[in-house]
Write a sequence for this structure.
């Protein structure tokens, strides 16, 4: 895995070519434009990566994963049977980041304590669902499928939280962001599916504004869907609901102020901003010492988020 220590601080980008970002590599490839492509003309044979001006992609997904023992790989392959799309091989993939961090939290039994610190309520018996894959059911989580169907979503083109954590008390939808923003709009602004009629017009109980105001004008379509489906699902399960927006410390600083006016306040439903840097601090303060802890902390320190328009390498996280 290539990170800040292994990558050039600046790369040369011309109208026709891009140099390999790995230190000491003299290879250049044809410059990619528009969508990222895995083609031979963009491939560095020495380092087995596909290159664009802003990022790169490993030849194999496993090269971007920290945890690869037998149980990890078995779970990862099972997840891919239900996950709709995957860019896990991409250096700036939020999916790879989510897997590397949350798989560690899960295997080290740190999730319940993390969620307890976020909510101020002791959370126990935490089960983690990756991209709708339930380890208990070895397939899509049935409760999520019920919510999707209730609000008129096709299962093959449905809302897919990055992570869902189910505890003895609460249900958490975790929407993880890395390089992308929370500004999203529907591809078909006139197709509300059953968002306005599903759950006996559930949207009236959880939103203060209409679909067009929130999803189209406000550009919070993704958060709208997760709040709608998640709050209804939690209500069906008789649990409280949290929608956690996991972002970089230097980004989306006002997301709570932006989204909260759209949702009706309730003691059993909360929207919270959490940062990746918060999670690193949680690991520092709570994880047992050992090889795995050293590995995940080194990952945080060395993680990059691609190159900017001038060809300068960007560190992912803002640590003191």
């Amino acid at each position: 895995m290539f990170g800040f220590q292994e990558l050039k601080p600046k790369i040369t980008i011309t109208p026709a070519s891009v140099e390999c970002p790995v230190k000491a590599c003299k290879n250049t490839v044809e410059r990619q434009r528009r969508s990222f492509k895995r083609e031979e003309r963009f491939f560095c044979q020495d380092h087995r990566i596909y290159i664009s001006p802003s990022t790169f992609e490993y030849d194999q997904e496993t090269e971007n994963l920290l945890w690869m023992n037998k149980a990890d790989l078995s779970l990862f392959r099972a997840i891919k049977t239900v996950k709709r799309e995957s860019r896990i091989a991409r250096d700036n993939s939020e999916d790879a980041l989510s897997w590397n961090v949350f798989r560690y939290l899960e295997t080290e039994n740190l999730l319940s304590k993390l969620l307890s610190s976020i909510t101020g309520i002791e959370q126990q018996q935490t089960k983690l669902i990756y991209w709708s894959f339930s380890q208990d059911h070895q397939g899509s989580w049935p409760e999520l499928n019920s919510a999707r169907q209730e609000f008129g979503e096709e299962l093959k083109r449905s809302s897919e939280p990055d992570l869902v954590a189910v505890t003895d008390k609460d249900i958490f939808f975790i929407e993880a962001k890395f390089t992308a923003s929370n500004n999203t709009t529907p591809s078909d602004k006139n197709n509300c599916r059953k968002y306005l009629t599903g759950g006996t017009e559930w949207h009236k109980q959880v939103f203060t504004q209409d679909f067009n105001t929130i999803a189209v004008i406000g550009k919070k379509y993704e958060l709208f869907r997760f709040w709608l489906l998640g709050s209804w699902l939690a209500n069906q399960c008789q649990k409280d609901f949290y929608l956690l927006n996991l972002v970089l410390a230097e980004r989306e600083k006002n997301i709570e102020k932006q989204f909260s006016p759209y949702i009706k306040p309730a003691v059993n439903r909360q929207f919270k901003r959490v940062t990746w840097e918060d999670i690193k601090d949680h690991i520092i303060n709570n994880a047992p010492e050992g090889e795995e802890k050293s590995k995940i902390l080194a990952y945080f320190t060395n993680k990059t988020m691609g190159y900017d328009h001038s060809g300068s390498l960007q560190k992912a996280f803002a640590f003191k």
Residues 221-236 form the longest helix (16 residues).
